[in-house]
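Anyone opening a protein record will find just a pair of labelled lines. A complete record is shown below as an example.
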Amino acid sequence: MMNRNLVENGEIKAFADVDFFSREAILKCLYWYGDKFHTTSILIDSQTYLISLKPLSNGIIQENDLDAYLQKLERDLIDHQLRETILKETQNVRDLLVAKAFSNGEFDEQPPGEISDPVGFSPISQP
């Protein structure tokens, strides 16, 4: 986000740097505003998205509430971008968990070494 974000003529205008926010994160964020706002997101130059929220004509949103919505938009954009980052960073772990869940036991191996338990529980024996 840049400090140029503003409310002007009954419309919220926010600017997002392409190095920080993906197109997908912006679209996911704007989806949740569609019930109250007409939303647009355009690339105004090679580095900046212009995000615009204009209240729908049904009059639900008052002009004095737009500053609060601008702050919420800024937080939601960061939230969606962080979700996307976490999704990418944990993809390998999730793939391994899914593969293990559907492996049907074909990759189950006994761990190397001797397994013992002082209370007599044998993790190797099956009931």
Observations:
- The longest strand covers residues 37-45.
